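Continuing the series of single-chain predictions for the mutant panel. This is the parent chain; the variants come on the following pages.
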Amino acid sequence: MKNVFFRKGRATAPHTGRILTLALALVMLLSTLLACTPAGPGEEPEHEHVDYVAQTKLEMTSSSRKVEARVKSYIDGDTTHFYVDESADFPEGVVKARYLAIDTPESTGRLEEWGKKASAFTKETLKNAAAILLESDDESWNKDNNGRHLLWIWYKPTADAEWRNLNIEILQNGYAIASNSGQNRYGSTCLAALAQATAEKLYVHSHEKDPSFPYGDATEITIKELRTNREAYEGVKVAVEGVIAQNTNGTLYLEQYDEEDERWYGMQVFYGYNMATSAKRFLQTGNAVRIVGTFQYAEVVNAWQIAGLEYDQMDPKNPKYTQLIAENQTVPYTEIPDLSVFTNGKTDLAVGEETVSFNNNYLALHTSASLKGLTVVDYRVTPSGDDKGAITLVCEKDGVRINIRTIVLYENGALVTPDRFEGKTIDVLGIVDAFTPEGSTEAQIQVRAFTVGAITIH
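Parent structure:
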């Protein structure tokens, strides 16, 4: 990883009268490097370590904006969502904060070395804080291109302690590189903290391997990143983690929760019939797993999926390959209360430096879902083929229709027929799926039910 001062497209905020030149930044860095003898993580440097965080004081009477907060959700090392009191500035009582002056390695999207370490540091610091305060860089609440507020994060370790600046602390501890660090309210301190961390070779500046990073030839990635930027990863060997929501005929439906969007994202995974028996034993519904395989578009099922899974029978805990993480996890079955919002609504998401609008039902694809109070108004039965006897229930709720598709269902050895559901009100637990009707080129969203017990009749 290169140690640089600026990265394109990251958080910036203007502050008049305090802009430091790049030349000054380089002089400060070089002078610090020359004065220090490098040390590895955990080693004592031969120069006197300076606690720049302790030296930095919060001026409550300054012109910057300030608001007390508490954590809503932890995203990564340099992004956190906070609750604040509702006001004209924050009518929803929520602030999505992007930390000023720092750029921690990624732990969402594509995972980078030291990303999880940085994220864990931020989470543990705020989790144990007695108080939290958000500060703007100037007289305004500035935002980045993704609508996140650009902020300084202050916290008190204990109720009677002084405020500490978390942005500077992250830099000082070597969990981040700079992001326009000299061009802000605490610019000189940020650069000094960065120079010291670089000289001490801490974490991202260490040139050492991250012990928590699963080095291998697979791209460490989230399901959200694959779903929202799929063409960029076609044919790429990827590694993802998630909970198995359903296992059926060599295909898994894998779900992963995204803290920033506060929603589950799903992925279809095809492991086929050649997977080792020992691996098949843990590729079961409710288990958390790490999947390693190739991301591709499968024409035969008209879907993007991960296939070609690899497994090491001699070393089943090897993170370079598919492995079990934990058993008996909870399948979320996210409730869909409003079919109109699900079917016709859209959500804007940041994809790289752009904002992209996605259909809500597309974002829910391959996730587990709960639907309640559906009225069965029609049905179809598959007349032939491997799915002969499978049922499609045409359901309606509040004037909106959705199809519930079953596999071939049996109860006590007898085939379940559609008259069981005709005209009834039902609740359904299933997987959001898509199918392309014969003669059409456009996929339609449906929900698949895999057991008799997944459909409750009122």
